[in-house]
Amino acid sequence: MEQPIIQIRNLGKEFKTANGPVRALNDINLDINQGEIFGIIGLSGAGKSTLVRCINYLEVPTEGEVLFEGQSLSAMSGAELRKARRSMGMIFQQFNLLAQRNVIGNVCFPMELAGVPKKEARERAMELLKTVGLEDRAKAYPAQLSGGQKQRVAIARALATNPKVILCDEATSALDPNTTKSILALLKEINKNLGVTVIVITHEMAVIEAICDRVAIIDQSHIAEVGTVSEIFSEPKSQIGRQLILGDAVKHVSFGTSRQIRLIFDGRESSEPVISNLVLACKVPVNIMYASTTDVNGKAMGQMIIQLPEEEADADRVIHYLKTVKIAYEEVTSHEL
Ligand SMILES: Nc1ncnc2c1ncn2[C@@H]1O[C@H](COP(=O)(O)OP(=O)(O)OP(=O)(O)O)[C@@H](O)[C@H]1O
Ligand SMILES: [Mg+2]
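Above: inputs. Below: predicted complex with adenosine-5'-triphosphate.
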């Protein structure tokens, strides 16, 4: 059998923090095959972003290793590692475009770093912009583009160094359903036409269902199950798999005397559905105890007190999500209400 393009072996990651060590990944073993679209799904805080960053050693694992085309990234010299990284393009939820450069400048950027002559880089960038359907926006700046267009630029940029793999960390999570569909279709096309292996990290089952061949479910730092999408969808074996696929009906959530959190809104877009996004990302309900927010010129101002689920892992997931999306919060005790 052909060798998998990426082999993840006994991989672990522990972060040292002021409050002691945080274990983000534990004994991860996965093989990703050349040419497939592989999904990694899990709830907020499960370890997805850490895993994707460990795959190209943006984050160096504390245990185990990753093999790219049979070569251990741990054993590579600096130059070899940079070459391997160029073979693994990345796209993110927040696009990460350079605001002061126009579209073609963004796509040329990784080629400049790789020492590609300027003229050649621009020609290749124009070709890539054609691939992603943006050849007429080459001179536009990121601020002039929609979210979907920004992600198309990010995809063109990720393809610039001719990668064999594209790593997507929640690439469609900031997009509306129709734009999500078109970006997923583009990734599928790139996979099919260019033979690029695609690794998709998401918390949405719909994304997995739309484009993945196989999927791994990650839960609390470890892999709960791996299989073809049809296997996992028809018969999830792990509890987390059942929860993600069958929904919250399988899980009884109790609030009891659980922790309460005050959310502070000081200028987010008032149209942003903060609580429903939180519930969707964490797959747990929260209880709204009190809310006093007002819309000031389209910005949400005020506060809201929510009760977290009693189960500690569920509550921690909500907290992690709030940190990730940078919503200010503080813990309250009930007499402060
Ligand atoms: N640089 C860091 N320092 C300390 N802890 C971290 C760091 N990065 C991640 N963690 C912790 O590791 C765990 C996994 O985080 P990670 O960001 O990988 O989750 P995730 O599955 O991507 O979540 P989300 O869906 O919210 O993006 C969390 O407990 C998180 O707080
Ligand atoms: Mg993440």
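The pocket of adenosine-5'-triphosphate (ligand 1) is lined by residues 15, 17, 22, 24, 42, 44-50, 203, 320-321, 324 (CB under 6 Å).
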